[in-house]
Amino acid sequence: MQTADWPAVLGTVATIFSVAIAGYALWRQLAVLRSQMVIQHFSDYARRYAEIMERFPERVHEQQCSLNDLGDTAAVMPIMRTFFYLCFEEWALHQRGYYDPKMWSLWHLGMHNALAKPAFRQAWERIASDTQFGARFIHFMAEEIAAATKPQTV
Length: 154
What we know:
Strand content: under 5%
Number of helices: 5
Number of strands: 0
Shape: rod-shaped
Largest sheet: none
Radius of gyration: 26 Å
């Protein structure tokens, strides 16, 4: 190698170094963007969940409260449908691998807690009979109902 070749070699090394730094910066920026999107998605679904829960009569959360105890079931059933559609969306996103296990466990726990209450299970029976969610979600819900109604052992 001659002395005249050194500027070209140094230029090539500098270019490779610059591309590596730019690649790393892009990789970090994409990681930050992904985190922001996950937080935004979680916040949106948490807001939707809270809005649904606020629309229910308070008694819906009582362990002995049936759907008929809530009074006007025609007013409660649309809220229940919205709740179960949200559950379906969350489940479908989980099935596609869009949730990490910790995030899914939060949504899963919320579904489990709701299905432990008679009013939610009774509403699900009505909704499942007239709505096409697909066999896999129906099976998932059946398993969740079985788990939610299983007697607790100490």
